[in-house]
Structure formats: C-alpha cells, structure tokens
Design goal:
This protein is mainly α and 163 residues long. It has five helices and no strands.
Length: 163
C-alpha cells in the first residue's frame, strides 16, 4: 500500500496547522471607562522629634471606635523598639474580648502569637545576658588568680637567685 503523504510533508502540515491555530482575530478594545477622580492622598505628618513620636505612640488606643484601627495601632506599637510589651498585651487582650470580624480576629491572633514570641525571645535574651555576665566575672576571677600565681612565681625565683 502506497502512502499519499510522506513523513516530512506530514510534519510540515502539522506545524502549519498548529501555527495557524493562534491566528484568531482579537476582540475590539474596550470602551473608554468613565473618568474616575483620583483618590485623595492621605497626608501623615511626621513627628518633629523623637519625644513627640513616643508621645503619639503612648496615646491610648481607646480613642478610636473601629477595632481594626486599634489592631493596626497595636501592630505599629509592636514594631517600635520602645514598646511596653505588657501594656500592648493588655490592650490586645481587651480587643480580643470584643466581638471582632473574622479577619480582625485572625489578625489579633497573629499579633498575640508575635507578642508571645517576642516575650519568649526577651526572656531568653535576659537569661543569656545573665549567663554572659557570670562567665565574664568567672573569667576575670581566673585571670586575677593567674596573675597572683605569676607574681608568686616571680617572687620565688627572685628568692632562689639571692646568695
């Protein structure tokens, strides 16, 4: 039986048909959307000095009505190196006692877990600092003893040299 199309022609025909599949007319461009005014920019005034910034962080969160705003303020306080962890924890506990939306509740749980982790790390850091101070004191005591032994050895050598 004789084939009408050989293999190379079949491959060429297959490639041409695959390349033509992508030749589809494009849909017309969408109609021009109605002009939407640009969103108003939110201006956040920076604190002029460090004390003013700390004063802003120290303001009670209870001034806001929205619990999500309170959660965001707590998150910002947690990012500060000067945050009082116990105060933030008490405010977070008060917020979690309220009825929160599911997203706010999950965010509060995330903040609570981060706060717990920060407390754990601070405790470990304090323990490590105490251990380091004890080791430094022990090293200083041993160095003092070694110096005393060296002085005693010098005195003994000096006595042995005298006729």
């Amino acid at each position: 039986m004789k084939h009408l199309i050989d293999r190379s022609s079949l491959k060429y025909l297959l490639l041409c048909s695959i390349s033509l599949v992508g030749c589809v007319s494009l849909p017309p461009p969408p109609a021009e959307p109605a002009l939407v005014p640009p969103p108003k920019a939110v201006v956040i005034t920076p604190a002029c000095n460090f004390d003013e910034g700390l004063a802003k962080l120290a303001t009670p969160i209870a001034t806001s009505e929205c619990s999500s705003d309170k959660l965001l303020a707590l998150a910002q306080q947690m990012m500060s190196n000067h945050a009082d962890i116990n105060r933030v924890q008490s405010q977070l506990d008060q917020l979690q006692a309220q009825a929160l939306s599911p997203a706010s509740r999950q965010f509060a749980q995330l903040l609570a877990s981060q706060l717990a982790e920060r407390k754990r790390l601070n405790a470990l850091l304090d323990k490590q600092n105490i251990a380091t101070k004890e080791q430094q004191k022990r090293a200083n005591d041993l160095a003092a003893k070694l110096d005393a032994f060296k002085d005693m050895e010098k005195e003994m050598l000096a006595r042995n040299k005298k006729p």
